[in-house]
Each structure stands twice: as structure tokens, then as C-alpha cells.
Amino acid sequence: MSVPYDTAAYEPPDPPEPPEEHLARLLGRALNSFELPDETVRLLDCALAHDGSLHSAHHSAGLHRETYRHTWLLADGSAVTLWELVHNTARGSEPQHEIYVDEEELRTATARLPLPPDAPDFELPVTVLPAPAPVLRQAYVSDGSADHARRLLRRAENPDRPGSETSALLSTACAHRITQAFGRPSRAGRQALSFSLYEHAFLLGDGAELSLWEVEHTLTPDGRHMCEVYTSEDAARDAMERRAARVS
Fold first, then answer.
1. What are phi and psi of 209, to 5 degrees?
2. Does the pLDDT of residue 232 top 80, yes or no?
3. Strands (DSSP E) along the chain, which ranges?
4. Radius of gyration from C-alpha coordinates of the chain
5. Global pTM?
């Protein structure tokens, strides 16, 4: 369903707008930006990336109300969200912008807007609920991430393990997370393979994310434990299947 108002101001520019400029524009147009805690503003000034999306909208009898969710990714892997309320229910029907630090404050502010009650069927308010914004990187830990990457690459025994270029990138890692991958069914109708597969996701100093895929198995001639590391999940799963084929 299309939204019957101009959203051009919220389309990301090309090239993408830096996080600090997005924050400055948001604070500049919000009538109550002075109410934001100083600590929140300081955190956002150092953000690595941001994402903005329409959260909901209500239109009735020429009046409108929209809410937007603005999320910033911080260097430690955590995220901070601000909620923007835009409406034209003030005197003069000029759009007004307000900003809040949590969704409960947003609901309170929205409830006080003098929007009219539901009109007849052909004028019912339109409510727009798009898909939630993509969840930014989460569950990172900032605990010797660069050292963790070095140890992971050091124990990898596969000849096609990541090389010096990947090592250089990971030397800037400031946070990481480890997730066991319970993945798609094996290709070619194979039964589940007796391997463990892990994703090691790293947050780099420039805000980019880089993942390595670790395969752990004991399908070696002497049955010892072996670690292999790849730069993609597909490459890791291909290696698993090749190993299994040799012993089947």
C-alpha cells in the first residue's frame, strides 16, 4: 500500500549519509531535541552506522501522523534507537517533528494528538505497518576480538584458509560474536554430517562486518580433532561434504 504523503526527506541519499549528519538533521528539526539526555547525544556522536525506517502512519480528514524509528550502531556492537513523531495537528497544519528516547514516551505523545475519530467507511484512517527495520548487528562482545581472530586463523589447518589480507582486516576488530550454525539440509540428499560449524562474526574498526566460518571435525586418518576456516558458509559446507565423501 502506498503512503499518501511525501517521504522524500527520509529516503537515504546517495552516497549514504554519515551517521553524524543524520543525527544533526534529526535534532535540528525536532522541537524537543533539548530534552534528550546529554549522554545519549554523546553516544550517538560516535556511532559507526545508522538505519531509519517508517514505523507507522495514520491519516484522517486531511490530518496525518507518522512515526519513524532511527537506530545507530555503536562501536561496542550495541545499538541506540530514537523515535521520531511527525504530525500536522498543530495550529496552522504545518508538520511538527518531535523525538523520544523510548517507545513508551512515543505512545504517550501520540495519544495526546487531536486526531479526529474514525470517519465513514470511505474515509477510514490508513494505518501503515511496514516490515520492521533490519536488526543491526547484535550480541557482540568487545573482549580481545583481534586476538580471537589471530587464534582462530592460527589453528586452521586447511591449505585454503584465509590469508594475509583477511588477517590485516581482522587486526582492527573491536568486537565479535560466535554462533553455532544449524543450517540448511545438506545438498544431494545427504544425511546430516557429523561436523560442527560455527560463524565467527567480527565488527571492524570502520563499522564493517566480516565473518569467518569454522568447521570442527574428527574425520582425520588418526581420528584427531581438526579445525578448518573459510571465508564463506558455502565454502565451509562444501569442505564438509568433501570430507564426508572420503570416508563414506
1. -120, 140
2. yes
3. 49-60, 63-73, 79-87, 96-100, 126-128, 175-180, 196-203, 209-217, 226-230
4. 25
5. 0.44
